[in-house]
Amino acid sequence: MADRVYSLVKQITNWHAEKLDDYTPPFLAKRTKRYGGKARERVLSDDEIRAIWACEDDPTFSNFVKFALLCGQRKQTILAARWQDISPSGVWTIPDRGDCAKGTVGKVQLSELALSIVRSQLRIPGKDLIFAAVHGKGAYGAFSRAKKRLDEASGVTAWRVHDLLRSARTLMSRAGVDKDHAEYALGHVIGGVRGAYDRHKYFDEKSAALAALAAEIEKIVAAPLPDKVVALKR
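RESULT FIELD:
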């Protein structure tokens, strides 16, 4: 987070320096990251997905987790999703708000399983966000408390919300999805010359990737839960 904040502030000061000749940016040209560390590798196993899928203590958080795993999108992208962004046929239009350096999916056809999650989500009168806060304004925000309860109920620990994206991408590979199509489905940018010149939207390919992901998840959750996990009733 510190590195991201530094990068944003540096961009602002560099932009300001281009406007004023007498302004010198306060940052060095190069800087060694202090908080780089090792990239996370956490991926949910099939048993962990089944255990989490069976827990519905907090329906909104449970739906969020399931939807995140089915669409492979970042937390803020999902929290910004509005009811009007998803057409009656299930096409999700993700606006490019210009605040994501890794690109955006644009338009994609959601799988039937993902659509069933959206349709089961409580629609709060006067609020257009799909995952809206029940009390107060804005999006759902009780992540820490809800995740703690989910961890206790499912027995699955040491995972983060962003690990759902990595798990989704891994399942796409397992389902045989083309690696480029999987990256586009997650909203990742293909760089270099090919990324600069290939302006195809890959709607059908992204949609097929999410359909394959949903089919893989359906196979996983259809298997019986391990004996040590008790499915909770809503």
